[in-house]
Specification:
- By secondary structure, this protein is α/β, with parallel strands linked by helices.
- Strand 2 and strand 3 form a beta hairpin.
- It has a four-stranded mixed beta sheet, with helices on both faces. Strands 5-6 form a two-stranded parallel ribbon.
- It is globular, with a radius of gyration of 16 Å.
- Helix 4 packs across helix 5.
- The chain folds into two domains: 62 residues, Double Stranded RNA Binding Domain, CATH 3.30.160; 79 residues, Arc Repressor Mutant, subunit A, CATH 1.10.10.10.
- It is 31% helix and 14% strand.
Amino acid sequence: MSDRLTYTVFQTDAGWIAVMASERGLVRATLPRTSAEDALKALGERASQATRNDDQFADLTARFQSYFRGENPSFTDELDLSQVTPFQRVVWEGARRIPYGETRSYGELAEEIGRPGAGRAVGQAMSRNPVAIIIPCHRVIASGGKLGGFGNRLDLKWSLLSLEADDGLPPDYPKG
């Protein structure tokens, strides 16, 4: 089944973000990038089949911009997770329930989704998160309060957690 894909790319206080959707929901949202071109490239190969439609994403764009100004907008958008495993879907749904400004360890999230002992598998699912911020994988940290994960962008993970901190002060997470 071939869905019509649409996308947008926009600037936030943290950098450029690109978002792509099918007719069923969002399929991809990038982390902030240094340029619009980098954000579009981060969407992957499917972006070449997509049509730009800024109007369709106007509300989502405004909510992302609000988020990166330190506000707490709601990201309850419909997601198209038709290409993911059932385990990934359960993990990502669990991550979406982590409140703004809070964190869970990979092990704690595994417990919450009814898969005790599956912390490593939860980490693997988080590393494949296609819709950053909307599925707040940055709120999932390693045991002992270490940041962990997030590819090579632990500084960005720390920034996102700092942005969400209640007191406006950066949390004192050990990096790595």
